[in-house]
Amino acid sequence: MQVLTSVILAVFAGYVGAWYFGIVDGNFALLLFLATVVTGIYWLAERFYFLPQRQKAAADLEVNALKRAEELGKLGIAKVDSDVSEAKNKILAQPWWLDWTAGLFPVIIGVFILRSFLFEPFKIPSGSMIPTLLVGDLILVNKFHYGLRLPVLNTKITEGTPPQRGDVMVFRYPPQPSLDYIKRVVGVPGDEVAYLNKRLTINGKPLATNALPEFFDEDVMHYFPQYEEILGDKPHRLLNDPARPAYVLGASEFEFKNNCSYSVEGVVCKVPQGHYFMMGDNRDNSADSRYWGFVPDKNIVGKAFFVWMNFSSLKRIGSFN
């Protein structure tokens, strides 16, 4: 078992190393699932086989020590060292290969359940959601709001609440599902979304916007026009860069692209059933549905709702719209 366990641990370590150095596209959900299964098997084996075997061996040691003391007593030898507690403790102790498998199972399965069905942490890597979310924000994502999904397969097993316009959603990036993206839901199935001359219109109705004080982006040391937009039932802030053109440059080929029409003014798209149109709040610095298409329901990960830490600014902690 020591050799087998060493091989299994080496495979896990090799996969993590290859992921870290970019040799393979890592899948943390799959890695966590496999770790849960493997450590769970070891935990069951420890509970129902290895531990009883060690307990039996410790009991046999104790019995044999007593028999030996009795036999020596019959020979007139009264002073016998029959203390086998140290040896008994060594027999009962878990070997290293069980410490690193069965011993970790309670922690791993706790993380697996929490991450798969309740809340998952993410780190904001880019500025596409500025000013709502900043680079370095550590956020929590509700995994059950849109319905529970099986880990790894991402198959929905409960309905939950359908995504609403204005939700900040984490999803699997359609061109490369191994990557997680975060954007705001702008269009739901059946909507006609128009983003023309940097003005958002849903089903023919322009969204109300109010000018706010300029936003200073510390990463680029520049001020940008900032607005408040009401999408859904709650307002949120957005940025526009007047130096960037309104037209969409470099849109890729994607499924249902014939639902969209591009012009020098921007883009108009009809959202197909079972799909969503996503945009970043940093409108001129966001690669979103305008460029790579619609997000299918099967790609949904969860609803982002809380910044739990930003090491550069503790004031960032709190909920957001």
UniProtKB/TrEMBL annotation:
It comes from the Bacteria. It is found in: Membrane. Its main location: membrane. CDD domains: S26_SPase_I. Its EC number is 3.4.21.89. It is a single-pass type II membrane protein. The keyword Iron-sulfur does not apply. The chain crosses the membrane at residues 28-45, 97-118. Keywords: Hydrolase, Membrane, Protease, Transmembrane, Transmembrane helix. Residues 98-309 form the Peptidase S26 domain. SUPFAM superfamilies: LexA/Signal peptidase. It catalyses: Cleavage of hydrophobic, N-terminal signal or leader sequences from secreted and periplasmic proteins. Belongs to the peptidase S26 family. This is Signal peptidase I. It comes from Rhodoferax lithotrophicus. The lineage of its organism: Bacteria, Pseudomonadati, Pseudomonadota, Betaproteobacteria, Burkholderiales.
